[in-house]
User: Fold this.
Amino acid sequence: MEGCGSTPHVLLDNHKRIVGVLAGRPKDDSWRDTTRAACDAMEQARGQCIFRDTDVEHRRGSYPCLAVGVSYGGGQQIPGNLLHSKRNQTAVQSLLCHKAIQRLAGFGNNILRHYSPKVHELYANTKTALVDKHPKLKWNFRNSVFAAATFNFGPATVTYGHTDNGNFATGMCSITALGNYDPTKGGHLVLFDLGLVIEFPPGSTILIPSAILRHGNITISSREKRLSFTQYFAGGLVRWVRYGFRTADGLKKESPEEWHAAKVERENRVQEAASYFSTFRELYQGVNTDTE
Assistant:
């Protein structure tokens, strides 16, 4: 299906809830310059990095990538910043400070705020709680509630079908495509569970619940390039705050009553998941419509 021009489209479930947003790009002639600058900056950073084998060959595909920001999971005892070698950290930090990258981050944030306000509020409130409790954490962007980001450096970022299990299950992930590929011939976003193949032009942004929707891309020509920039929020961060800044084991030992309540909440997760996806009716009730 076609999508991702300057007019946003939404994916709805049977109850008219928004489960995906083909946000496209702002109606602003300078956006093309912004995405070109972001792509150039990422290519320059790629040349400065030394990647481990696991950074290049991984379950999402065969291309170099680096994640940056705040995370919790995978054996971490408390939330912390994702770490890299000094060389790679310098390159990644230069990207976080780049105005074009910051504009991409802000656009993804504002699309989330408009089309998925309950998820945006959850991310914002969780981030605020973490800032207060763990002031030494370093956040990627001032203009984005997302906790972490990944730079997929290409030059042929084509992902296998996968889900991002570490992300907040009922949240949204922002994906911005970059490069010079022909979107009518390759680079499409494939949503396997929905049976959709969506044109995804360079410079466009899409929001999907990447933890529960299996997704991937169609290959591009060997003469083309495709990079991408993603933002997301680890589910472990949400649970850490909900559990009173404790692990699940810590909550169980220190407060059995709260642990039981949390267990009941987990058992009702299906109903909770559906409640985070907004309907058009809810969006019409005064949500900020500024998406740029």
